[in-house]
Design goal:
By secondary structure, the protein is mostly helical. It is about 60% helix and about 5% strand.
Length: about 375
Amino acid sequence: MHQSPQRAAWLKFAKRYGGEADLSGLTDDPGATWLVDVIKGLGTLADSYQGDKNQRGEPYRVEHGIFDSMEINGAAGRVAGALVFGISFGTILRLMNAQMVLLGPPPDERVAKTLDYLLSAAPDDTEPNGISSVLSVPLTPSSRVQMQDRTFFSIGFVFLHEAVHTLIGHADFASQRLNLSLDELSLERESGTWSELIQAIELEADSAAFSNLWLTLKQSPRFGFCADQAPDPVDRIAEATIAGMTALLAIEGRRLKLNQDKEYHHPFPSRRISSILRLLSTYEQRGLLPKGVREAVAEKAKHQRPFFQDTPLARLVDVISGKTNHRPEDIARLSELIELYKSKLTQFEEMSYAPRVRLAAVERS
């Protein structure tokens, strides 16, 4: 079978992250067809993006897929002239199962250990006893639809984050100016001022990914899985937000488990969460999103709080719920990163295929 140059480039890229995942097991399992639909749906969304690189007659085209890895979250770059990105199958499984637990019975010790493993386990950690029994507890029909919906949005945030890197110039900037790809393997060492610039890039990718979900749901509330005949846009946007936050909680859980006390090229998740929450409030204040979304997100976080009792992640859940304020050092750091990004904006504009989502101005208060 003939293989396009773009496809060959993606397979070459995927080898770095365990190769391409074999999803035939999901396809053949009637109970997993919805997850296949999630993956295909996100791919269709990425394929729908259109753009012209700096209006120079170079149309946007990207090749994407799923890595056969349980360790990394995602990666984006340019290989052999082709834009490529992907997320790991491990990320899909962890986020799906985490949503299942968070919508299941009230937490006990087994549930707490299972959730901690799903969100925080290092690659070589042993599964806790009882994890199979926790994950096999059947959900009510309505909770099952909600679990599928939140899985779509949590995976969607990671997927769109990587897609955005290719769409608005990040991948080309990293490849052409820094000689690296935007992923954990390439970004695990400090490199002076470039480390801080990549942190700012990551913040913008977060903002663009969430903005894509929010604004799509504002226009089409049934986007994703939805059991309601007349869904409430406020609730739908809040669902997407709380689900996407699960991915950031997982990053924080893994960071703490591995004792990673330096930021390197990714901002601490506490800063990323503060950035998104403040962007959400800004959108609501400016009328870009309906009133009540931030309050709805807070209520959903309060409902999840018992699952994180006595864990390091409880602090971040309390910020999402509004119980505690953003840390002043996070807000100050966000302001610094935004200013640094603005200083390089012209270079990103030259490499972008589409209008960008600006980083929201962050107050120091």
